[in-house]
Structure of Serine/threonine-protein kinase ULK3:
Amino acid sequence: MRIGGRSRSRFSSSPPRFADARPRRRSSHERRPASPLPRVAARGRPKVRFCRRCSASRAAVPGSPAPPRGPREGRVPLASLRGPHGVVAGMAGWAPPQLEDFILTERLGSGTYATVFKAYRKKDVREVVAIKCVSKKSLNKASVENLLTEIEILKTIRHPHIVELKDFQWNKDYIYLIMEFCAGGDLSRFIHARRILPEKVARIFLQQLACALKFLHDKNISHLDLKPQNILLSSLDKPHLKLADFGFAQHMSPRDEKHVLRGSPLYMAPEMVCSRQYDARVDLWSVGVILYEAVFGRPPFASKSFTELEEKIRSNQPIELPSRPRLSLECRDLLQRLLKRDPQQRLSFQEFFAHPFVDMEHMPGLESLGKASSLVTEAIKKDQEGDAAAALSLYSRALEYFVPALRYEVDVRRKEAIRSKVSEYISRAEQLKALVASNNKALLQQGCPARDILKEMSRDKPRLYAALEVASAAVAKEEEGKDDSETLDLYQQSLGELLLMLAAEPAGRRRELLHAEIQTLMGRAEYLKEQIKMKESQWEAEAIGKEGMLDSVRSSCTLQ
């Protein structure tokens, strides 16, 4: 059984009735006292149930009525029916309203209290927009507050990764939100059409989402309903994420706490359900769920029934990451830290924005090319001075900026000129790499006697000796020319143990040798890390074609 709400047939002769509209008869919640969810929570804790008909969240605290809820509060969306602009398509509808200066055409979808139409402005340049038509008759107190908050927030912000509210109008029947049109649908459709996204694609989208969230965070705005259905794509040939649907958004400082349940259960942070007390960090949980769904194909709480869903939300078990597909250590680390059930253990916004997988420093932007050019100038200078290692490091760092510069550039000729220059720099970097590798091999061989002495002195400490054995295996792999992630993992494993041993080691000759060995291994690990990044940047720079930002993964993620 798929979790989601119901919709009437589009051929129904009567207009649709939504759970949050004011019905003439008693509401479905009142008519159906039994909840499909058993009370699995411990006695005395706040509980949540979900309506059998509309999937809306309902309070289940004994002796207390259900709290008022917003227009879409707590529902589990019908992802298969959801269209662009955060609304559900395929529901019964009506003819487009008449709005001066606009021609309303196809319906993009319908939500609880609004219908969204594609429209054209009646001008010489027929601008395409999306118009959300909100029926005044369907609004209750909570939905009015949500709508006013959405308008208030959207009319004051402008960001390349947030859907733009161009204008809003009203008449006696409707309130009209005239918004930017996003032709690529939503992220949920994009993911499900491909089953899973390659990590590189998910990372690009995550960077764009993080950029929008940082903009909002700096203004103390929390979205509170982050999910793939509320993230739109500007197009399919060159997709850029656009965060939409600010109906639940709130002005919240980092210390503010809220108690009203809002959002969609599959993407809600557990504290919203279990304690009804939460802060802005719930958005970080939702980001983790979105990233999890992008790389694994389904959200971590995907369930066959509402009972199973509530049990997963209330469970104290940590979120486990599937072993396949294989992800980078950085991606796994971010997922594990975002999906901490305890918000006090969850990483902070500052830690999220600074995380190496998010890597906002290398996000495509106007300044990317300038930073790359500056580093190349330094690399050429070091190269001329004969400092091959420094020059190689600078070329590698420059490539990390050239890749986003290529993604950012839209002019075909300029992009081709940049790619031509990048090819020259890559060629020189390869020559320097061979020279540096030869020097490194000699240095590694010079360090062997000291490492052997340290191992002999460590036979009385099995844990220290085992860590040195792992380090020796890493050095052997590097000497064989295997400068890959597997070799780097060995270096990092040994360093993790050796640093712990160093902290407990008393002063003496063994401590001196151990300290020197750690310094050597850290240098090797940093060098390998740079080489791996350079390989990735080189591959991406060569793969970025003229057709769009995702050409680098077209073989595994074809845009349709």
